[in-house]
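sorry to bug you again but im stuck and you know this stuff better than me. theres a chain ive been looking at and ive put its sequence and its fold in token form underneath. id like you to explain what the token line says about the fold, in plain words if possible. anything you notice is useful, everything is just below.
___
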Amino acid sequence: MTTTSTEFEDLFQTADELLALEVEELGRVVLEYIKAHADAKGVVSRFSFASAQRGRSERFGRQKHDEVCQALQEAWSFLDHSGLIGPLASAGAQEFSDRYVVTRNGQAINTIDDWTRFLNAQRLPGFLLHPLVLQHAYPNFLRGAYDAAVMEAFKRVEIHVRDRAALPANKIGVELMGDAFGTNGALRDKTVHQNEADGTANVFRGAMGLWRNPIAHRHVGLDHVEAGRLLSFASTLLGIVDDLKVKLGRP
């Protein structure tokens, strides 16, 4: 696929090439098309969009024509539901479902990197994350730097635990968690059953051994699904520390 044109018959050599794209990928292409074909006021008609594609059956072959049109309509719907395009506010009732404009969020997407950040934000909304992960790790996740995002998230867990337990800077990783949550640790919750307190310690030690250490020393090659889960997990760990701070009266 080339990117020198916004016409679908120029972007794709065959119908199968277009149909092979996931709806999110095709959505980016349709967004570029809409921007290029909107009128002087930035308005584009969904009916005109559909009609234009139906008029180009010869390029992709009549056998695949309906599949191509359906895929393009699905991409349009994806953009609409994602808030990248929307009905023209000033349109009358009869035109409301036909006349569309690119929204402010859609206008902000101009490059592949912009699109990657948008998709990643859709996959893992920031409100699900602890503020420290949101500030220090989430920007890497949005850029698609998944290993770096996870490393930073667990680094924040390490720093947060060390600070709350008032332990020295030379305490790191698994040893740090053992000292903070162990039998005499400053973050040991002695109001709960021993098994629960031990479980908390084991979770934090395991997080450092399984994720913090490998990510810090080699390329793991995480994808967005794995990274999203781990950022959520790191946020959960940070939330536990925050709760213990309040419960135990830690500074």
